[in-house]
Design brief:
The structure holds 2 protein chains of 2 kinds. By secondary structure, chain A is mainly beta. Chain A has helices spanning 2-6, 8-27, 59-69, 90-95, 141-157, and strands at 29-34, 42-48, 73-81, 100-108, 114-122, 127-136, 166-173, 176-183, 190-195, 199-204, 210-215, 222-227, 233-237, 243-248, 254-259, 266-271, 278-279, 287-292, 298-303, 310-315, 322-323, 331-336, 342-349, 352-359, 365-367, 375-379, 385-392, 395-402, 407-412, 417-423. The radius of gyration of chain A is 24 Å and the shape is globular. In chain A, 46% of the residues are buried. Chain B contains 6 helices and 4 strands; from the N terminus they run H-H-H-E-H-E-H-E-H-E. Chain B has a 4-stranded mixed sheet with strand order 1-4-2-3. Classes of the chains: A mainly beta, B alpha+beta. Chains A and B meet through loops of A and helix 5 and strand 3 of B.
Chain lengths: 430, 168
C-alpha cells in the first residue's frame, strides 16, 4: 500500500495496462442477452479448472460463454477448483440447482505446450459422462476450449455442436472495409481482405477452405474467390455491369452468381475454376440472392417478377419456379436450415425490416427480433442458431438468435460497423 | 453513315447558333486584330463540357428515383437527353452510369435495384444517341451513400443514378 502511495503514477500505469489486456480479452465476444420467459435451459456448473489461473486462456469461462450463447444452457461459474480426477460434491451441486457439471485442469508441459483435461458429470444421475484431454500450443487453447464445448453440447443434447466452426463477416471503420474470419465467439479473428472500397456477400465453400465475396475495388461489384489456406485469390466474375451474390453448390464445383451482363439482373451458374457463365434464371425482372437447399437439388432466390421482391424456389436447372412468400411487399435474403424445413428471411413490415422464419412444412411464420433493420440471416451448421446483421443505437452489429427468438447474443467487437455475416461449415481450415 | 451525316448537320446547326449567340464578341476580335500580336499566339483551349465542373452537363448528371422503383421520371427527360446526345456526339468517351439505393433493405437486392436504375438511364441515353458499349451501367447498391443521414431527406438523395465520364 505504501509503495502505491509513493509511486502513484507507476501504479496507475500498471492498472491501465491490465485493464487494456482485459478489455482485449473480452472485447470480441458475443454478449448473451436472455429475453425468454419460462425458458428451459439446462443449468450447468463450471468448476474452476486446476491450473487455470496461470493459463493464458481461461478455458472454463470460454466453454461457459459458448454454451450460453447456444441458448440451450444456463452455465454458471461454480466457485471451487475441481480437476478431472476428483469426484465433485454432487449433493452440494444438486442443491445449488445444477443438472450437470464440468471439471478439469490445465498444465504446461516441459516443451511449452499445454495439456487440457476435462470431465463432464451428470449431477442428477450422479454419473461420469466421460473425460478427454488435448495437448496444444498456447495459440490453440481457445480451439481446445471450443472442442470441449462441442463435447459437452453433444453429450447433453445429442446434437452436433458448432463451437469449433467459423464465421465470416465484414467490418467498416470510417472508409476501411475488412473481411474477417473468426471463431463463433468473435475471437481469433483473422483479416482476409482489407480495402478502401466496400466488400459484401461473403460465402463459404462447402469444405471451409475458400470464401467467395463481392468487392468494389475496381469501382464496380466483381466476384472473387479467396483461399483461406494460402490467401491466394482469383477474380471469378467481372463481366459488364454488376457481378454479385455468389453461393457455392454442395460439391463446391460451381457457383451461382447474379450478373447483369445482358442488361437484365439474372442468376447464372459458373464453374468455380472460372469460364463462361450459363444462365440459370430467365425473367425480365431482378433475380438475385440464390441459395441451395439442404440436398443441393433446389435453389431459393429473390425475384421482383411479381412487382415486388419475393422469395421463389427453382429446381437445379432453374426451371419449375414456384413462389414461396406471399405476405407483405418485400421479402429478401433467404437462408435454408440444414434439414431443409425452415427458411429464414428478411421481411419489410411497415417501415421495418425484420428477421422471419417460415416452417416450409406447416407454412407457419414467426418473427424473431425486436430490431428494425435486420439483414442477411445465416443458419449454424446444426440448424440451432441464426446469425444476422442488424442495428442497435445507430451501430451496425451482428446478433445470434435461437430459433424461438428467446435467447439472443450480440457480438461485441471494437471494429466499427459489423455486417454481412455468413456461418461456415463444420469443416474448417485453421 | 446517314446517321452520322445527320448528327454532323445537327452539330453544324448548333455551331452556327452558338456563333450567333456570341455575336457581340466579333467586335472584340476586330479590336484585338488592330494589335500587332498574331492571333495564333494564344491558342484557345476549350474545356469540354464533361470535364468542366461548372458546365450545365456536369451540374446536371443525377437522376433520382422513388423507393423500390427504377422508372426515370419525366422531370429528368432533358437531363438524360443532354447526356445521350453529348455521349453520342463524343463517341470516343467512355461513360458509366452508377446506380445507387438507399440504406433500407438487403444489400444484394439494393445492388440489383441500383443496377436497374443505371440500366434505365443508359437505355434512355441510347435513344438520344449514346452508342452500344459506350455506356456501362454499374451499381453501388446501398454501399456508397452520398447523404449520410437516416431519414427520408437522405434516402431521397441516395436513390440515384449518376452519369460519370471516365478519365483514363
Amino acid at each position: 500500500m505504501t509503495a502505491n502511495k509513493n509511486h502513484p503514477k507507476y501504479f496507475n500505469w500498471i492498472l491501465g495496462a491490465l485493464l487494456l489486456i482485459a478489455s482485449l480479452n473480452v472485447a470480441a465476444q458475443f454478449r448473451v442477452e436472455v429475453n425468454g420467459v419460462g425458458l428451459s435451459r439446462l443449468p450447468i456448473a463450471f468448476a474452476k479448472f486446476r491450473g487455470e489461473e496461470a493459463s493464458p486462456q481461461k478455458i472454463s469461462s470460454i466453454v461457459r460463454n459458448d454454451l450460453n450463447l447456444s441458448g440451450q444452457f444456463d452455465g454458471v461459474q461454480y466457485d471451487r477448483v475441481i480437476d478431472e480426477s476428483q469426484r465433485p460434491d454432487v449433493n452440494e451441486i444438486k442443491q445449488l440447482g445444477f443438472d450437470a457439471a464440468l471439471t478439469g485442469s490445465i498444465s504446461q508441459l516441459p516443451d511449452g505446450r499445454y495439456e487440457v483435461r476435462f470431465r463432464l458429470w451428470d449431477i442428477v444421475a450422479n454419473e461420469d459422462l466421460g473425460a478427454k484431454s488435448y495437448v496444444v500450443d498456447s495459440s490453440e487453447l481457445r480451439l481446445a476450449a471450443h472442442k470441449i464445448s462441442d463435447f459437452v453440447f453433444e453429450n447433453l443434447t445429442a446434437e452436433k455442436g458448432i463451437f469449433s466452426t467459423r464465421l465470416a463477416f465484414v467490418t467498416k471503420q470510417k472508409s476501411k472495409y475488412t473481411l474477417w474470419v473468426s471463431d463463433i465467439d468473435g475471437e481469433n479473428a483473422q483479416s482476409a481482405l482489407s480495402s478502401p472500397e466496400p466488400i459484401i456477400s461473403p460465402s463459404w465453400s462447402p469444405d471451409g477452405s475458400k470464401i467467395a465475396y463481392v468487392s468494389f475495388e475496381s469501382r464496380k461489384p466483381s466476384v472473387y474467390i479467396q483461399s483461406l489456406t494460402d490467401g491466394s485469390r482469383r477474380l471469378l466474375a467481372n463481366f459488364k455491369g454488376s457481378n454479385s451474390a455468389p453461393v457455392w453448390s454442395k460439391d463446391g464445383k460451381t457457383l451461382l452468381v447474379a450478373l447483369s451482363k445482358n442488361g437484365l439482373h439474372q442468376i447464372y451458374s459458373i464453374d468455380a475454376k472460372g469460364g463462361e457463365p450459363r444462365q440459370f434464371t430467365r425473367s425480365f425482372s431482378i433475380d438475385t440472392e440464390p441459395v441451395f437447399n439442404q440436398d443441393g437439388l433446389n435453389v431459393y432466390f429473390v425475384s421482383d417478377r411479381s412487382g415486388s421482391p419475393q422469395i421463389y424456389k427453382a429446381d437445379i436447372n432453374g426451371s419449375s419456379v414456384t413462389r414461396i412468400t406471399f405476405e407483405g411487399g418485400y421479402n429478401t435474403s433467404p437462408s435454408v436450415s440444414p434439414d431443409g424445413k425452415l427458411l429464414a428471411y428478411i421481411s419489410k413490415i411497415g417501415k421495418d425490416f425484420k428477421l422471419k422464419l417460415i416452417n416450409m412444412v406447416t407454412s407457419d411464420v414467426i418473427h424473431l427480433t425486436n430490431t428494425v433493420a435486420d439483414e442477411r440471416p445465416s443458419f449454424s451448421p446444426n440448424g440451432k442458431l441464426i446469425v444476422y446483421a442488424t442495428e442497435e443505437n445507430g451501430q451496425e452489429c451482428l446478433m445470434m438468435t435461437t430459433l424461438d427468438g428467446r435467447v439472443k447474443t450480440r457480438l461485441v467487437v471494437p471494429l466499427g460497423d459489423l455486417r454481412e455475416p455468413n456461418w461456415g461449415p463444420y469443416e474448417t481450415h485453421r | 453513315m446517314k446517321k452520322f451525316i445527320s448528327n454532323l448537320s445537327i452539330m453544324i446547326v448548333v455551331a452556327i447558333l452558338s456563333a450567333c449567340n456570341s455575336a457581340p464578341k466579333v467586335d472584340d476580335a476586330t479590336l484585338a486584330g488592330k494589335n500587332t500580336a498574331p492571333v495564333s499566339a494564344v491558342a484557345q483551349v476549350v474545356v469540354p463540357a464533361h470535364l468542366d465542373p461548372n458546365s450545365a452537363l456536369s451540374k446536371n448528371r443525377s437522376v433520382y428515383f422513388d423507393f423500390d422503383d427504377f422508372t426515370v421520371k419525366k422531370e429528368y427527360a432533358s437531363l438524360v437527353e443532354n447526356h445521350g446526345k453529348y455521349a453520342g456526339a463524343n463517341s470516343k468517351l467512355t461513360v458509366r452510369v452508377e446506380g445507387n439505393a438507399d440504406e433500407r433493405g438487403g444489400r444484394e437486392y439494393n445492388l440489383a435495384l441500383g443496377q436497374k436504375r443505371a440500366e434505365a438511364v443508359v437505355r434512355a441515353m441510347k435513344v438520344y444517341g449514346a452508342k452500344d458499349g459506350q455506356v456501362e451501367p454499374v451499381s453501388y447498391g446501398s454501399e456508397k451513400p452520398k447523404a449520410q443521414g437516416h431519414d427520408e431527406t437522405a434516402w431521397a438523395q441516395n436513390r440515384r443514378a449518376d452519369v460519370v465520364y471516365m478519365t483514363k
